[in-house]
């Protein structure tokens, strides 16, 4: 009878989980990489092109310099993303090994830490003791529990470093291409600059809205902040170029 009761409860729980659809967005790392690549890609080449336009440089030279910057920026940003993800994976591996050794060497202390973690969630001693004992019987589950709840570390994807590098680099190229398009089509740099400003600020506005939607922030506030940063960067570069040109 007891076994049938447990079986009925398990089936009921499964049905509840199937009926309930979670709305959480899980690909936060990918979104972060895209945001990093596109935001820098839109801003840095835009500021460079604006600065060179302020120095009265022909569109052809601005385009060559912009393409070179986009290529160098994509490589640099991609490499940075790769090294950051690789460092996280190395850190996880070191902590995993250390936690494994502690579970073997001082299991009672680790069990006490496990109990303390559960107590922080309001679980009473008579409730968490069976849980701690169950974890001690399953070393792998115990290790996973300690890594997640004691150290706050999630197991990284083995392909995460390469994935991060490619996403950031590609996003940077896509973003960096936007402010350079007018210089491909318009020979006069001053006219190309005006079109580039309109095109890039529009792209920044759209990107800010999308970023705000995916990150859970207010979309219009995010759009305003993104456009403001791009406008300040390009205005500063243009103004500096004009000052040095007159000097």
From TrEMBL:
<comment type="function">
    <text>Vacuolar Fe(2+) uptake transporter.</text>
</comment>
<dbReference type="InterPro" id="IPR008217">
    <property type="entry name" value="Ccc1_fam"/>
</dbReference>
<protein>
    <recommendedName>
        <fullName>Vacuolar iron transporter</fullName>
    </recommendedName>
</protein>
<dbReference type="GO" id="GO:0005384">
    <property type="term" value="F:manganese ion transmembrane transporter activity"/>
</dbReference>
<keyword id="KW-0479">Metal-binding</keyword>
<dbReference type="GO" id="GO:0005774">
    <property type="term" value="C:vacuolar membrane"/>
</dbReference>
<feature type="transmembrane region" description="Helical">
    <location>
        <begin position="192"/>
        <end position="210"/>
    </location>
</feature>
<keyword id="KW-0472">Membrane</keyword>
<keyword id="KW-0408">Iron</keyword>
<feature type="transmembrane region" description="Helical">
    <location>
        <begin position="165"/>
        <end position="186"/>
    </location>
</feature>
<feature type="transmembrane region" description="Helical">
    <location>
        <begin position="34"/>
        <end position="55"/>
    </location>
</feature>
<dbReference type="Pfam" id="PF01988">
    <property type="entry name" value="VIT1"/>
</dbReference>
<dbReference type="GO" id="GO:0005381">
    <property type="term" value="F:iron ion transmembrane transporter activity"/>
</dbReference>
<keyword id="KW-0813">Transport</keyword>
<feature type="transmembrane region" description="Helical">
    <location>
        <begin position="61"/>
        <end position="85"/>
    </location>
</feature>
<keyword id="KW-0410">Iron transport</keyword>
<keyword id="KW-0926">Vacuole</keyword>
<dbReference type="GO" id="GO:0030026">
    <property type="term" value="P:intracellular manganese ion homeostasis"/>
</dbReference>
<keyword id="KW-0406">Ion transport</keyword>
<dbReference type="GO" id="GO:0140315">
    <property type="term" value="F:iron ion sequestering activity"/>
</dbReference>
<dbReference type="GO" id="GO:0046872">
    <property type="term" value="F:metal ion binding"/>
</dbReference>
<feature type="transmembrane region" description="Helical">
    <location>
        <begin position="222"/>
        <end position="241"/>
    </location>
</feature>
<keyword id="KW-0812">Transmembrane</keyword>
<comment type="similarity">
    <text>Belongs to the CCC1 family.</text>
</comment>
<keyword id="KW-1133">Transmembrane helix</keyword>
<comment type="subunit">
    <text>Homodimer.</text>
</comment>
